[in-house]
Amino acid sequence: MTQSNSVLTIRDLSFRYDEQTVLDNINLVVPKGSFLAIVGPNGSGKTTLLKSILGLVKLQKGSIDLFGTPISKFKNWPKIGFVSQKANSFNSGFPATVFEVISSGLTAKLGLFHFFKAKHKKKIIEALQSVGMEKFLYRNIGELSGGQQQRVFIARALVSEPELLILDEPTVGVDAKTVQTFYHMLEDINKNKGITLILVTHDVGTISEKVSHVACLNQHLHFHGSAEEFEHVQDQDLSQFYGHSLQVITHDHKHGR
């Protein structure tokens, strides 16, 4: 894997809070155009890993390169989109339309005091089309369901045309029956737009059908490989890694579709 083919390279990353080790010697390479799922139990270090990648915490040990540049020197943050668990805690009374929410995603590129032109509105509509929400352009964000809101936040991240999109458990607060459709949408964004995706999730079995790579994190990186390789990981090994029993996972990776 050359630097030019990697959007993210993590070497020997370790992190501690006081006396507690949260991340221990993490090595991870994310190829350009891949769709990586990071799975792990609560308290496994997933949040700290994301904060490290996004430059929100200072590195204690190890290194992170973004698009071949050390994170300490990386300046082109619009190349990275981030979607958090907003659908679970968003203030439904927030007085903003879908258009206004997504247009705020252009601020980093255009500046705070900007004027929208026709080409910018076109980008907003295209971003909404990517998540199947173009009919809701002028709807108040508070009138939407949790799943619809999360799609809008993904469109907000897409409008600046990032090359890497990071999503932190985006199905939290999303109705269970729409989860599969939601993941299919992410798969489509990855394949048709060529955007590299990193998804933090608890949906181990479900998401393995959609992603190209899986990383199992619990302080250590217990597994990192292709989704096909992940299919052959024994359920008892996953249960040991998670620290508790897991239901048997049936993988139907890329079959029956």
Description:
It is built from 9 helices and 10 strands. It is α/β, with parallel strands linked by helices and 257 residues long. It has a domain at 3-85 and 163-242: Rossmann fold. The strands form 2 sheets. Strands 6-7-8-3-9-10 form a 6-stranded mixed β-sheet, sandwiched between helices. The chain has a 4-stranded antiparallel β-sheet with strand order 2-1-4-5, covered by helices on one side. Helix 4 packs across helix 5.
Q: Provide the succession of SSEs.
A: EEEHEEEHHHHEHEHEEHH
SS field, number of helical segments = 9
Shape descriptor reads globular
**Considering DSSP H and I runs of 4 or more, what fraction of the residues is helical?**
25-40%
What is the architecture of the domain at 3-85 and 163-242 at the second tier of CATH?
Answer: 3-Layer(aba) Sandwich
The largest beta-sheet arranges its strands as 6-7-8-3-9-10
CATH topology of the domain at 3-85 and 163-242: Rossmann fold
Instruction: Note the beta-strand portion.
Output: 25-35%
SS class: alpha/beta
Q: CATH-wise, what's the superfamily of the domain at 3-85 and 163-242?
A: P-loop containing nucleotide triphosphate hydrolases
User: Mean pLDDT, nearest integer?
Assistant: 83
Distance between the termini: 30 Å
> Main sheet, how many strands, which sense, barrel?
6 strands, mixed
Gyration radius, to the nearest Å?
18 Å
Low-confidence runs of at least 5 consecutive residues:
245-257
Q: Quick one: how many beta strands? A: 10
CATH class identity of the domain at 3-85 and 163-242: Alpha Beta
